[in-house]
Every structure is written in C-alpha cells, then in structure tokens.
Specification:
The complex is a heterotrimer of chains A (365), B (331) and C (309).
Chain A: H1 2-7, E1 28-41, E2 44-57, E3 61-65, H2 72-80, E4 87-96, E5 99-100, H3 106-110, E6 117-120, H4 124-127, H5 134-145, H6 150-163, H7 169-172, H8 182-194, E7 200-204, H9 212-229, E8 232-237, H10 240-246, E9 249-254, E10 257-263, H11 264-269, H12 274-281, H13 321-325, E11 331-332, H14 337-340, E12 353-354
Parallel strand pairs in A: 3-8, 3-9, 6-7, 7-8
Antiparallel strand pairs in A: 1-2, 1-4, 4-5, 9-10, 10-12, 11-12
Helix pairs in contact in A: 5-6, 5-8, 8-9
Chain B: H1 8-15, H2 23-40, H3 42-65, H4 101-137, H5 139-153, H6 157-167, H7 172-198, H8 202-209, H9 214-251, H10 262-269, H11 278-304, H12 326-329
Chain C: H1 2-29, H2 34-37, H3 44-53, H4 60-72, H5 86-121, H6 126-140, H7 143-157, H8 170-199, H9 202-209, H10 214-252, H11 257-266, H12 270-298
Helix pairs in contact in C: 1-12, 5-6, 5-8, 5-10, 5-12, 6-8, 7-8, 7-10, 8-10, 9-10, 10-11, 10-12, 11-12
The chains are: A alpha/beta (365), B mainly alpha (331), C mainly alpha (309).
Chain lengths: 365, 331, 309
C-alpha cells in the first residue's frame, strides 16, 4: 500500500489554495437524498437502507464506509439500478446531473447506464461472463450506446485495455475471463465501467478480493482514471486505510443508516459519532507495542431487529434514555473551532453531519 | 447455485430464523411446522390426501371388491360409464366380457403399487448406501461407482428391460429387479454428491478426531443429513417407476395376463378404442392422477426440506413476483 | 481440442463395450442359447441342429471371439422370421427412427428456448404457467396413454389425422406430439431454471449497468450460459427419447428401430433384437460425442488449456 499512499493526493481538509482543476472539478455530480431500500422477506419487509444522504463531486472520491451488511453495497446497487428483485427503492432521490434516477423506469435508466454511470464489482470472476471473450464484453458498451460495428468496438476495446494497463491487448482481447489473473480481471472490469467516460463511477469494494500489492495498483489505476475523466467516484469499502488514502469525503454507514459524513480529514481527526470513533480506535495505527487494541463490543443489529431509537444504542458507550426513545437525525455539526475560521466560502465544501444526540459532547469523553 | 430470488441479506435473515432456541426445541418446531407448511399449500395437501386414498385403495380395495374384477357377465358387456342403471359396480362401465371397470381398476392399483413401491425401495436403499459410502471414501471407490452409474444411465432403461425381460420371463419380480437396477444410479449420484460434500465438513472431521469409525460416521452424521433429499427423490422416482412399469406392461413385456395393471389395461383397451373408449382412458387417468399427485408432493417436499428455501413457502405468493418496476414501488 | 475429444470418446465408449459384452453374457447366461434364439415351440431336433450349426458347443472363449468378430463385421446372423440379415434389417429401420427423433428434438429445443426464456423473464406470467404445466405433464402422463388419447380424439372422433402409418405429413403429427412432450417438458424447465439463475449472476447485473436492454441481456448474455446446462441434459434426453420411440413406433406402426425391437421380442427373434439394440447403443454413443463437442464450443472453460500467446 506504500506506493499508493505516496502517490495519493493528500486528503483535502477544507483549506484554501486548492489548485483549480478542470472546468467542472468539484461540481456536485451525484446527490443522494433520503434514500431508503426495502427487502421483502418471509418475516415481512425490512429496511436495509434508511435515509441515506450524501454527495459525490467531480474529480473527487466519496467513500461509503461500513461493516459488511451495513447496507453500503445495497446503496451502490440502488444507485446503479441493479438491485435484486426482492428489493425495492422505497424512498428518496438519486440526482445524477440534475436527473432524478429514482423516478425513471428501468428502461429509461438504460440510457444512463454506461455514459453517465459505471459500476465496478468486488468479484471480477463472477462479474465477467465466462462464455464470452473479454473483447466482446469490453466492446459491448460501444455497440449499445454508440452503435459501433463489431470491428470498431474491438478497436475501442483494445484502446480501453491499453488505458487500464493490460499488456499486449491485441492478443489478449480474444482471451476468456478465466485466462486472466485476478488483478487483470479487475482491470478489465474497471475498463468496462469507464468505457464511455461516465460522470460517476461506483466502485463496490474493488480491491477486497485481491492481493495487497495488486490492491495498490488497482487503487492507483482508479485514481488515474478519475483524474483523466474528472469522474466522481463513490468508493464502497470497509477498509479505513483505503478511505484515509483515497477518499476526499466519507459517509460512515451503520445498520443501513449514514451515521456521520464529511471530509475525510475532519471526520477522521475529529469523529462526531461514537461509532466512527470506535472504528478509528480499533485501528492499530499509533499504538505502543503491547498496548491493548480496542474494539467495539457487541455486533450490529439484525435488519429485522433494528431498535426504534438510535441504531447504535446497543453498542454505544454514551447511551442515554433519549437514544432509546428517539432516533437522532443526520444533522450538520459545526466544524472544529480550530478550522472553522479558515473555512473558505467561495468553494462550498461538503458539510459535516452526524446522527448522534451527543455529537458535540463526544470530544470531551 | 444462485437461486433467483434469494439475496444475500434475505438469506442472512432466513438463517437467523430461531436465534437462541435450543437444538431439541428446534427439532420439534421443525416437524410441527413441516406439517403446518403442508396445510398451507393447497395443492400439496390435496396431493398428499389423494396419494393416501390411492394407497389405501391398493391396500384394502381388492379385498372389498372380491371377485368382481374377474366375474364375467356378458349381459353387461361394454356398458358405458357414468350410469347407475346397472348398479354401482358398473359406474365406470364394463369391458367386452362384462367385467366391472371399477373393480378392475382397484385390483390393478395393487399390482401397480406392488411393483413400483418395492422397486423404489430397493433402488433407494442400495443406491443411497452405495452413494453415501462412495462419497464418504472418495478415491477409487467413488470413481468406480460413478463410472458404473454412468454406464447404466447412458443406456435407455427400456432397452435394458427389453433385453433382460427377453432372456428372463417377464414376471413381477423380474420387473421390480430391472426397474430397481436402472434407477439405482439416480440415488447413487445424488447420495454421492451430498456425502462427498459432507465428509469435508467440520462436524464430520470432529467425529473423526474422536476416533469414530467410518460406518458409524456415515450412519450417524451423513445419512440423517442426506435422507430428506433422498426421500424427496424417491417420491419423484415413484412416478418414473410407475410410468416405466406401465410402459412395459403396455408393450406386452411387463405384467402378464391374467394379472392386471393400469398399463396393461390401457393396452388391452386399445383395440376397443372405437367402441369402448373408457377401457383405455380410465386406467390412464388413474396413472396420471397418481403421478401428478406424487410429483406435486415431491416438488413441495424439495422446497420444504431445504432450510435455505423453506422461507419461500411462507412467502405470500404475489411477493415472489420479481422485478417490480422502480416507479411502482414508490409510495 | 483433439485431446479433449479423444478423452471424451474413450470415456463414452465404455458403456458401449459394456453393452456388447452384456448382450453376449445374457445370451450365454440362460444356458443353451437355442432357448433364446429359437421359438418356444421348437423341437429338440431343431435345437440340437441349431446348437451345432452356430458353434454353441465350442468353448466359451472361442464363442466370445466369434461373437466380437461378428459384431465388428456387423454380422448378427439371420432373422428367424424373415431369414434376412439381422444387421441389414436394423439399418433399414434406423432412418425412420432418426427422422422422427431428430424432428422431435429440434422442435423440443426451439419450443423450450422460447417458452423457457419467456418464463424466466416473467415469473408467474403466462409462459411460466405453460412451462410448469408442460413439465408437470411430461413427468406425469404416460406417453403411450397420451398417444392413445390423441388417436381417440383426433383420429377416431374428429377424423383429422390417420391412426398410423408414415404416409403424408399428417401422419407425423401425432407421433411427434407424443414424443415431444417429455423432452420439451424437461428442457423448458432446465432452460427456465438456468435462465433465472443466469439472470441473477453478477455479470448480468454488470451488463445491465452497461445499458444492455432486456432483449440484449437475454439473447446475448444469459442464453449462452443457460444453454450449457440444457446441453448437459440432452444426453439423458436422447436416452429417454429411445424409450419414447419404442412406445410411439409400436402404437403408430412407425417402421423404425423401436418397433423392430418390440416385434423381435414378441416373435423371439434374438438376432434382430441384438442388432437393433447394439445399433441404438452406437447411435447414442455418437450423439454423446456430438454433445460434448457442442459443449466445448459453447463454453471455453471446458476446453483444454491451449498454449497462451
């Protein structure tokens, strides 16, 4: 991960003096408001994703951070419009460049799938169709959206493979997915997602299934493609280190809810939700040898068993009566005093928000 | 295999069905809910009731019918069905010798069952034990067993029966044996696959570390797990075997007169199709009703005995409709 | 590809060898083969003569060598009934069965693909109901009875179709319809099932995320993946088709290999039965090879690893 860390631009901390990027850099590309997803099960409908809200900006990476089962992948699928049949988009808006995807029919969404929005999955082996060559699959987006013929699509596919750093694309284009290594497959998957230079790239744990060394390469590739195309990237991950290195802003999810969001540097240096705080303390970053590694006691609630008050109440060290009675909304929290006076007003940065009754008091614990 | 409607999160919910209940408690609940689940499914309930009725008919019906099935009465020859004019025994009509159709159907049901049930039972026992053994031990025992199964399966069962029944006489016993032989590979393959998967699981390893012998492990740990699948398969196989016996009897190399089975009755009625259609049609209806009932029950059993799929049965029907357009799903 | 094929041929040939040996063993197991070959009412003198003429008094190994030689030369002896060469009779009956079976299979595959895909796309829709009804019927209705109902309704009551024979297109309708039921019922269920599971694969989701519409997802992405399982059961289906052909040909008087087999049994004509059974086994063997080749063409993963560039 070293190389990636060195080359990563330092997470922006809301300071002035950011070099002005290409025309539309930092424009809000995606705005998610009050997103809720229901799953129908035999025990009734459960809400897997609840009032999720965040923004993704051009040329920046937003990380959706959370444990497995917290609803982050479900959110990604909802954004891309490829939810499982038992899931429903219950509420909310997904505004991509001014269009609310949530109200479109599946057919209308097809126009956006590819040119506006691409997605990268975690497991490249199952995400590639085993019976077609990678060339066929890479070229498909061009055939669908640009109506290219097979030959033109093949040329585009070769270009794509070059772009994502696959050696000898001319000969490898006729190979099948199972003939590539895991890292190469992930590159192919990324190539497919960025084929039509979408405004928004959703990367659903793109490196989880890979070796650590390959992980760094893939993250580097994603970063390169983001800079080239000024894409907004939504990076879904459970890895705090990846968030720290790659993301500009972060939305922390717990049990289907966003519990805290804001610029990575601020959130990580000054968490305003006990869950974020607990997560950060469980990382063995600056520990002395022999010191006790902290962990969050307990486990997340089952989806059908989410308490009516705060979702984190059963594990929270600060829990009070009000937490059991009333679910805290995700509301803006003031920036820490040290940074508030240098906050530039010209470039509206993503506001910090947390869903905790005691977010202000958290520092004093 | 990916099933269409399961979904990781939904699965998680299903597996967390009875948190905290003890093992024994779970078991009792499982059995009770299995019966309750059956009552919930209208088709499966009707099928189960039908099968029990047909089984009872085969068991005690012939005794009730006495000699009605063989008693010839030329005065009542070729009477059409659905008429009570000649007494209840001719309600389904009569054949050219004036024998009661109803009585003959009842007597034939016993022949049909007494071939199909033993054939299924023999194939089930031999095939399952063999398959579990082969799958547990892997290696050459598995390879040889699978090759044998392949050889039997790659040859049409009817041809095998034809050759064997040519050489040996077509008695009920021989038919049972040949049908059992051709169906053993079905159980063998299934049992092998399940047992091979199980033998690599931790609880089998645990038993092995206690020094349990292979046969004890197979008996105590593997067979109970595999059994529901195999019993479901046997229900399905009952249909197949019944159809196969009927086909053989129809072709004249199965049950021989004066015995009578449903398949043989269809064959015997064939030449009277123009004048007395009921002679062929009714025994066929009897076969179809029985096999459909067994098929429906097997389909239900397959889902009900699979803990990963059982939740579907309790899912209200219309919720299983996939892919609701996003727009409509909005409140 | 060649290595793969050779391996498949060798493994598929095993059942064939077993059948050939099995027929020989069965013929000898019953003691005097004369009781097999000759009609039941043959005199003792006929039996003795027969035994000597066919070398059944020779040692078993010599007999076996003779038998295998005969199989290789396609020499199964003469038919007891017609006196014709048994192999020639079987070969003459074969095309009629092949036509019937091939037409049925093509129809079954096409119908199953259309109905199965349609059913997979719209669970609980009309096609889904048709497909579950047909597969239930296929597993439940005896083919001989279906044929008889067909004759009763369409030939006897309505008079639209002939009851038997091979003359004219109308004579094909009932035999094919009867024979079609089982493979169609099995295939439609397989296609539907594998389509449903293919449609829930991540690569389908990914195709959708590339903007592939419903039609494209089905025809380009899911169908080819779903075809492989269907091809896998095709072998079992052909085996089942032979069973069906025996029944259908007997009922409709179709002069094929199935009818030949039943006739030769009922007339105790062992030479012809033997020739017909072995010819059928060879045909099944050849078909399995074809299926394996089709499978390898369809899915690159089963192909042997070739040197990578």
């Amino acid at each position: 991960m070293k190389t990636a860390a060195e080359q990563a631009p330092a997470p922006r901390s809301g300071t002035a003096g950011i070099p002005p990027g290409p025309a539309r850099a930092h424009d809000v590309v995606l705005q998610v408001k009050d997103l809720a997803v229901d799953i129908r099960t035999h025990r009734g409908t459960v809400r897997a994703v609840n009032s999720v809200a965040f923004e993704a900006r051009a040329g920046e990476t937003l990380a959706l951070l959370g444990e497995s089962g917290c609803g982050k992948s479900m959110t990604a699928k909802a954004l891309a419009g490829i939810m499982d049949p038992v899931c429903d988009l219950a509420e909310g808006q997904i505004i991509l460049n001014g269009t609310d995807l949530a109200v479109l029919t599946p057919k209308e969404r097809l126009k956006f799938a590819g040119p506006e929005l691409g997605i990268v999955f975690q497991d490249a082996l199952t995400a590639l169709n085993p019976v077609y060559t990678v060339g066929t699959q890479l070229g498909e987006a061009f055939r669908i959206h640009r109506r290219l013929n097979a030959k033109q699509a093949k040329a585009e596919a070769i270009d794509l493979m070059k772009r994502v750093g696959i050696p000898e694309p001319e000969s490898r284009i006729n190979s099948y997915p199972h003939q590539f290594s895991g890292g190469m497959r992930q590159r192919i998957l990324i190539a497919m997602a960025v084929a039509l230079n979408p405004r928004l790239l959703i990367a659903d744990e793109p490196t989880t299934a890979l070796d650590v060394t390959v992980q760094a390469q893939i993250m580097q590739l994603l970063r390169k493609l983001r800079e080239e195309g000024q894409m907004a990237v939504v990076l879904i991950t459970h890895d705090l280190a990846v968030v720290a290195e790659e993301a500009d802003s972060v939305a922390v999810m717990y049990a289907g809810n966003v519990v805290e969001s804001g610029p990575v540097s601020e959130v990580f240096s000054d968490p305003r939700h006990p869950y974020t705080k607990g997560l950060l303390e469980s990382v063995p970053a600056h520990l002395e040898r022999g010191a006790q590694l902290k962990s969050i006691a307990g486990s997340p609630p089952e989806l059908h068993d989410i308490p009516s008050g705060c979702v984190y109440q059963s594990r929270c060290p600060l829990v009070q009566d009000i937490c059991r009675a009333e679910r805290p909304a995700l509301r803006p929290v003031g920036p820490p005093v040290a940074q508030s006076d240098i906050q530039p007003e010209t470039q509206p940065r993503p506001a910090r928000a947390a869903a905790c009754h005691f977010s202000e008091e958290l520092n004093n614990v | 295999m990916n099933s269409p409607l399961t979904e990781p999160a939904a699965n998680q919910l299903a597996s967390a069905d009875h948190p905290g209940t003890g093992k024994n408690n779970d078991k009792r609940e499982g059995k009770l809910s299995l019966f309750r689940l059956l009552l919930k499914d209208r088709f499966a309930t009707v099928s189960a009731v039908l099968l029990v009725l047909i089984g009872l008919t085969a068991l005690i019906g012939p005794a009730l019918m006495g000699d009605l099935a063989t008693k010839q009465n030329l005065l009542f020859a070729n009477k059409a069905p659905f008429s009570f004019a000649y007494g209840w025994e001719y309600v389904l009509g009569s054949d050219s010798l004036g024998r009661s159709m109803l009585a003959r159907l009842v007597v034939a049901s016993r022949t049909t069952f007494s071939v199909a049930l033993p054939a299924v039972a023999v194939a089930l026992v031999i095939g399952s034990l063999w398959g579990v053994w082969a799958g547990y031990h892997r290696g050459w025992r598995e390879n040889v067993s699978m090759r044998i199964a392949d050889v039997i399966m790659s040859f049409p069962s009817l041809l095998l029966a034809v050759v064997v029944l040519y050489v040996f006489s077509p008695s009920a016993g021989n038919i049972v044996l040949i049908l059992a032989l051709t169906r053993i590979p079905i159980y063998l393959r299934t049992a092998r696959a399940e047992s091979a998967e199980l033998q690599s699981r931790t609880f089998v390893d645990a038993a092995r570390t206690f020094g349990a012998r292979p046969n004890a492990i197979i008996g105590r740990h593997v067979i109970p797990v595999v059994l529901p699948t195999l019993l479901t398969l046997a229900t399905l196989e009952f249909c197949y075997v019944m159809l196969a016996e009927s086909s053989l009897s129809f072709l004249g190399i199965g049950i021989q007169p004066p015995d009578v089975s449903w398949g043989l009755m269809v064959s015997q009625g064939r030449q009277y199709l123009q004048t007395a259609w009921w002679l062929s049609i009714f025994p066929g209806v009897a076969i179809v009703v029985t096999t459909i009932a067994a098929n429906v029950l097997a389909a239900w059993l397959r889902i009900a005995t699979d803990p990963a799929q059982r939740w579907r049965l309790s899912l209200p029907r219309k919720r299983m409709i996939a892919r609701i357009p996003v727009k409509e799903a909005k409140p | 590809m060649l290595i793969y094929l050779r391996k498949r041929i060798l493994s598929s040939a095993l059942p064939l060898v077993v059948v050939i040996v099995g027929v020989f063993a069965l013929a000898r197991m019953t003691g005097n083969p004369a009781s097999l070959y000759l009609p039941l009412n043959a005199t003792q003198q006929m039996r003795d003569e027969f035994t000597a003429r066919n070398g059944f008094d020779q040692p078993l190994l010599v007999q076996m060598a003779d038998y295998f030689g005969g199989v290789l030369r396609l020499d199964f002896g003469q038919s007891l009934r017609t006196g014709q060469d048994a192999a020639a009779m079987a070969l003459r009956a074969f095309p009629a069965t092949l036509q019937l079976a091939a037409t049925t299979m093509v129809l079954a595959v096409l119908l199953a693909l259309v109905v199965g895909c349609w059913a997979a796309l719209k669970p609980n829709g009309i096609a889904d109901r048709i497909s579950s009804f047909v597969s239930m019927a296929a597993a439940s209705i005896p083919d001989f009875w279906l044929a008889i109902v067909g004759i009763w309704v369409f030939a006897i009551s309505l008079g639209w179709l002939p009851t038997s024979g091979v003359s004219g297109a109308s004579a094909w309708v009932l035999p094919i319809a009867t024979l079609l039921l089982r493979p169609f019922g099995v295939l439609v269920q397989i296609v539907r099932g594998s389509m449903v599971s293919a449609l829930s694969e991540p690569y389908i989701k990914l195709a959708r995320s590339r903007g592939a519409g419903e039609l494209r997802v089905v025809t380009h992405h899911a169908l080819r993946n779903a075809a492989a399982p269907a091809l896998t059961v095709a072998g079992d289906l052909t085996v089942g088709l032979v069973n069906g052909a025996v029944v259908v040909e007997t009922i409709f008087g179709w002069p094929g290999i199935g009818k030949l087999m039943i006739d030769s049994i009922l007339q105790r004509d062992f030479a012809v039965l033997q020739a017909a059974v072995l010819l059928t086994a060879v045909a099944i063997f050849a078909l399995n090879i074809l299926i394996d080749m089709g499978y390898a063409l369809l899915d690159a993963r089963v192909r042997p690893v070739t040197a990578r560039a």
